[in-house]
């Protein structure tokens, strides 16, 4: 999961599109140009991005890039919903008024690629100076759709085990296995006093991305040999484990908890353990919102029956609008913004990048707490490059996959719910694959 958004289905794109112009402040739809011709020197390079610390840092540096290419840059920062809706409006109209697109490789890229909305970057990333092999393998693989490179990762994330150092001293340190996590979380839970051994996402669709690491570490996957894998014994064990963890050691109302509800519980010192994206770590060090900044520790994702197999994903990537009339300049922007120098500079400011070289440079890791940087490094080495099913209709898939999670958290029998979800997901995959081929 990415930390940055809720899943949006193709249908949701359409529902949101009607209000995008006013919400995003991007002008009338008629402003989208579909005409040909070469833009004048005064035409800005238009970049649309999520309002994120990475985008903000790049925006502050755009003057440097403008001097490099001799063209003005116009960068618009939006919420995730506004961004997705704007793309739907503009790209359905073959609009040329966006050049560089910040996209979620695991949420929208497959659909965008299927629709022909993203330019193929395969030849461009082959430039030796860009050093495509320097990008971590898992995020690099996630950039591919149908054998084509459609995006370049710029922000990555993995799940971190956040824990209270003051509470685990007598337990021999942070748990290294899921069995140890369950035992410690249950031992430290005092529900009558409003203290919980574990807090985490439990919302049906939103929890899927974090549950994925539990699934992989139990030896399962969303799709196995092209068919649904969520009815396998490994998936069932992962569902039951995650459900029991929140049911026995978690707060009430866990099935309604997204990132925004779970994170404050840990920040306010009301939970001993919390697993979520490592990109949110700074929230727990902020004295304005955190009561645990003096006692927080960071550890790698704990090992399950199949070992420690967390996700290591590109939460945000850069692509080029296939209809852009400034594709060469758009690529120059990506070369600059995702290049080795910029990646090192931004990671030195605490923004996790995608290049292996910046993860092996002690200077770029100095801004992270030492135990966090080590946890991130290990999780990146062990990680898989996706945290949700890789399908066209990601939102619908997450909704199906998340149903047995809710049953487990509510203390219901998981097997019958998992069987129904498995059958529904199997049918969904058939339909989704037909859409890919159409």
From TrEMBL:
Sequence intervals crossing the membrane: none
Pfam families: SBP_bac_1
Superkingdom, taxonomy of origin: Bacteria
UniProt xrefs under InterPro entries: Bact_solute-bd_prot1, SBP, TAT_signal
Name of the protein this chain belongs to: Sugar ABC transporter substrate-binding protein
């Amino acid at each position: 999961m990415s930390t940055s958004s809720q899943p949006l289905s193709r249908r949701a794109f359409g529902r949101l599109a009607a209000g995008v112009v006013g919400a995003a402040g991007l002008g009338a739809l008629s402003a989208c140009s579909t005409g040909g011709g070469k833009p004048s020197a005064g035409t800005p390079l238009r970049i649309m991005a999520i309002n994120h610390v990475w985008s903000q840092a790049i925006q502050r540096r755009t003057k440097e890039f403008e001097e490099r290419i001799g063209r003005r840059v116009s960068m618009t920062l939006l919420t995730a919903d506004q961004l997705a809706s704007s793309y739907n409006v503009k790209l359905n109209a073959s609009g040329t008024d966006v050049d560089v697109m910040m996209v979620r490789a695991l949420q929208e890229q497959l659909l965008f690629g299927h629709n022909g909305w993203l330019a193929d970057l395969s030849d461009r990333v082959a430039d030796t100076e860009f050093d495509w092999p320097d990008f971590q393998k898992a995020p690099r693989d996630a950039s591919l759709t149908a054998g084509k490179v459609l995006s370049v990762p710029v922000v990555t994330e993995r799940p971190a085990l956040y824990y209270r150092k003051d509470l685990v001293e007598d337990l021999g340190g942070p748990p290294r296995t899921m069995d140890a996590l369950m035992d410690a979380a249950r031992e430290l839970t005092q529900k009558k006093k409003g203290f919980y051994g574990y807090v985490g996402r439990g919302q049906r669709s939103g929890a899927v991305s974090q549950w994925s690491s539990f699934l992989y570490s139990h030896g399962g996957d969303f799709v196995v040999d092209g068919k649904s894998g969520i009815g396998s014994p490994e998936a069932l064990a992962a569902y039951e484990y995650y459900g029991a963890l929140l049911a026995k050691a978690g707060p009430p109302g866990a099935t309604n908890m997204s990132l925004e509800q779970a994170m404050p519980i840990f920040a306010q010192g009301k939970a001993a353990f919390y697993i979520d994206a490592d990109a949110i770590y700074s929230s727990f060090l902020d004295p304005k919102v955190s009561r645990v900044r003096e006692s927080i520790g960071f550890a790698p994702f704990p090992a399950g029956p199949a070992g420690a197999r967390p996700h290591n994903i590109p939460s945000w990537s850069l692509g080029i609008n296939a209809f852009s009339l400034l594709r060469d300049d758009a690529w120059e922007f990506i070369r600059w913004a995702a290049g080795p120098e910029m990646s090192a500079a931004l990671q030195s400011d605490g923004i996790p990048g995608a290049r292996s070289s910046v993860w092996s440079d002690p200077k770029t890791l100095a801004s992270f707490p030492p135990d966090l940087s080590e946890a991130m490094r290990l999780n990146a080495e062990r990680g898989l490059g996706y945290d949700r099913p890789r399908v066209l209709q990601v939102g619908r898939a997450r909704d199906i996959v998340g149903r047995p999670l809710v049953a487990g958290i509510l203390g219901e029998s998981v097997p019958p719910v998992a069987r129904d979800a498995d059958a529904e997901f199997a049918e969904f995959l058939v339909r989704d694959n037909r859409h890919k081929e159409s």
